[in-house]
Specification:
The protein is α/β, with parallel strands linked by helices. It is built from eight helices and six strands; from the N terminus they run H-E-H-E-H-E-E-H-E-H-H-E-H-H.
């Protein structure tokens, strides 16, 4: 796989926990980079905006596994866009199959960016994967969409877990262990302080 050990380990943990042995094929990393994977927990909007600003314009996809204007993440999407706009950074929404401008950042979904990559990918809207089942999104489809989101980064993958909506069990729990607290009422003040 064209990725680093940290990202490949995350992909393998997710795949192994969520797909059958007939579907899961372990990936092997060929690159090294100590900053290639960041998993943080706190205020989702603040953290996403913070990490977008760390990379130059045109380098980032912010990806929700499903549409970003429903399923209780529409408000967060608008907050992210507003925070970035207030700092002079524009991120464009895209949920269509149209050509994406390589000089722009996008907030989008897994289906739109399937087969595409950016230097930095920030995955959000995955704090409570159970909510998607409540909206009748087939579990297998959701697993595939999350895997697509996790595998789009060339240089850095950031997984943002929102403290207010985190619910365990979560499809990402195997990836999160060792990176963030798994307690439902935990709040990562350190991550929030880094963003101020």
């Amino acid at each position: 796989h064209r990725s680093t050990r940290e990202r490949v380990t995350t992909l393998n943990k997710f795949s192994e926990a969520n797909f059958s042995v007939n579907v899961h094929i372990p990936q092997i990393s060929i690159m090294t980079d100590p900053d290639s994977l960041i998993i943080v927990r706190g205020n989702q909007s603040t953290l996403v905006a913070h990490y977008v600003k760390e990379y130059p314009p045109g380098s980032t996809y912010v990806i929700s596994p499903v549409t970003f204007d429903r399923y209780n993440i529409g408000q967060s999407t608008n907050e992210i866009r507003q925070l970035l706009y207030n700092d002079g950074r524009i991120i464009y929404p895209s949920e269509s199959g149209r050509e994406l401008d390589p000089t722009c950042d996008y907030i989008t979904n897994s289906k739109t960016v399937k087969g595409l990559e950016r230097d930095q990918v920030i995955v959000y809207g995955v704090s409570n994967t159970r909510v998607y089942k409540d909206y009748n999104i087939p579990e297998y489809e959701l697993k595939c969409l999350i895997y697509v989101a996790l595998s789009r980064a060339r240089k850095r993958l950031v997984i943002v877990i929102d403290d207010e909506t985190y619910h365990s069990p979560n499809m990402l729990d195997p990836c999160l262990r060792g990176y963030i607290s798994m307690e439902s009422n935990y709040y990562n003040n350190e991550a929030v302080q880094q963003c101020k």
